[in-house]
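queue> pop job 88
queue> type: inverse folding (structure -> sequence)
queue> payload:
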C-alpha cells in the first residue's frame, strides 16, 4: 500500500526562508517529504514560502517565531510530530559578528540551546546542524577533512558555531539517543534552477 501523506517523513526546518534553508526545503519537497518551516524573518522574506509552494506545487506549513522565545519553541513540538530537525536559523555575517558579538551568542548559541531543550522534551532527537568551515580556524592545514579538528576561531560568528558543535557533542555524550550531524560548509552560491529562490538577504551578507 502506498504511504499516506501523514506517513511521509516530516522535518522541521529552522531558518527555512533563508538561502540554504529554502534550497534544502525545495529538495525535501521534491522527494515528497513534508516540511514545516520556522523563521523570524529577520533577514529573509515571507515571499520565499510562496515561491517554494510554486516550485513544489505543495502547501507549506510556516510558523513565524523566534527561537529565543522559549514558550514558542516548545509549542512547535506540541501539535506536530517530526522525524527530525534541520537547523539553519542564526546570524551569519562575519563582519557584523565582530560589531555585535552578544547578538551572535544570543541568536546562535542561546537559540540552539532552546531548540535542543524543546526537542529533548518532545523526544525528537535527530538534528542536522548548519555549522561552518570557520570552526577549523585559519591555522588548520588544507585540504580540510572530516577528521580535521576545530581550531582557533578568529571571529564571534565562527566561535558561536564552534561552541554549538561542542554543546551538541556533549548532548550526544549525555544521551546516546541523540543523533547529530554538523555541516561545515564554506560559501554556498547559486540559485534554484527556477530562478525563484536564491541569496536575498534583507541586511548583511555572509561576509
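queue> result:
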Amino acid at each position: 500500500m502506498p504511504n499516506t501523506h501523514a506517513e511521509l517523513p516530516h522535518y522541521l526546518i529552522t531558518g527555512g526562508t533563508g538561502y540554504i534553508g529554502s534550497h534544502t526545503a525545495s529538495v525535501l519537497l521534491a522527494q515528497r517529504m513534508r516540511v514545516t518551516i520556522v523563521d523570524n524573518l529577520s533577514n529573509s522574506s515571507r515571499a520565499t514560502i510562496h515561491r517554494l509552494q510554486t516550485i513544489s506545487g505543495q502547501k507549506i506549513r510556516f510558523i513565524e517565531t523566534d527561537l529565543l522565545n522559549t514558550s514558542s519553541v516548545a509549542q512547535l513540538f506540541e501539535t506536530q510530530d517530526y522525524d527530525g530537525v534541520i537547523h539553519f536559523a542564526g546570524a551569519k555575517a562575519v563582519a557584523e559578528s565582530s560589531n555585535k558579538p552578544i547578538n551572535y551568542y544570543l541568536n546562535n548559541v542561546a537559540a540552539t540551546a532552546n531548540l535542543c531543550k524543546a526537542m529533548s522534551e518532545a523526544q525528537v532527537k535527530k538534528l542536522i546542524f548548519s555549522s561552518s568551515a570557520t570552526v577549523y580556524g585559519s591555522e588548520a592545514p588544507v585540504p580540510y577533512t572530516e577528521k580535521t579538528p576545530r581550531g582557533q576561531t578568529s571571529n564571534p560568528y565562527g566561535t558561536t558555531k564552534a561552541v554549538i558543535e561542542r554543546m551538541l557533542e556533549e548532548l550526544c555524550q549525555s544521551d546516546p539517543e541523540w543523533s547529530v550531524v554538523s555541516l561545515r560548509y564554506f560559501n554556498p552560491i547559486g540559485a534554484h534552477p527556477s530562478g525563484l529562490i536564491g541569496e536575498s538577504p534583507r541586511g548583511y551578507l555572509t561576509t
